[in-house]
Amino acid sequence: MIRLDKFLCDSGAGSRSTVRAILKAGRVMVDGAVEKDGGRKVDPDRGRVTLDGEVLGGRRRTVVMMNKAAGYVTATEDPAQPTVMDLLPPHMKHLQLKPVGRLDKQTEGLLLLTNDGDLLHRIISPKNQVPKVYYARHEGAAGEADIQAFARGLTLGDGTVCRPAVLEPLGEGESRITVWEGKYHQVRRMMAARGMTVTYLERTREGSLELEGLERGAVRELTQEQIRTLEQEAAGGGPAATVNLLEESAAEGLEAPWNLE
Q1: Is residue 259 in a domain?
Q2: 38 and 70 share one domain
Q3: Residue 116 appears among annotated catalytic residues
Q4: Active-site choice (10, 45, 86, 104)
Q5: How far, in Å, CA of 48 to CA of 62, rounded?
Q6: From CA 19, how far away is CA 27, in angstroms rounded?
Q7: Of the four, 18, 69, 114, 237, which is 20 to 30 A from 40 by CA?
């Protein structure tokens, strides 16, 4: 059994203050009768709770896409610095969302958050080959030797082994990097290992998801169709875009990461 007001919050009806107002307005019905008492206990498996006629199902699985701004740490809480949770609108703060992976404080771009722990771990697992694409501005220019080094995989100065990745020069001091794992400061450290210090970094894609005009600092909840696609990708299939990228790399003679096991 669970308090009705908590059930409503977990169902995405809103914050606690919003839920109180909803109850007071008589918009909630339990088993066909209007209920205004948020302290009433309900059984999510047996009771029928509706809001404005729509049946609610308790805590719902939610996946949110954020266009992270620089200056926020990827954590659920931090005593000294603002976190990505501060960018969530009030009606999402109660959904128990957690970041999927990590972007460092100064890195911007696509960050997923979810309350589905199983999906979270499947997305970040390297064995499931969910690609993460970054745009970087950096000192120096990427050359053929750097491309080949990324394709073979790099061992960093501290012994960290980075799996094969794709480096695509976009012009003087600009590159696109695709990785299939998420080690600490990985892209910055891989570029630095090749003598290219990153001055700006943005994640532009994860799996088949792209920012699609989402403003910096804004968030958008994924549709059920997008979540299903993400589940398929996190099951190890990977999107068609990844296959195309690898085929292009192979056609250019790169040792592309066909097998990341």
Answers
A1: no
A2: no
A3: no
A4: 104
A5: 21
A6: 10
A7: 114
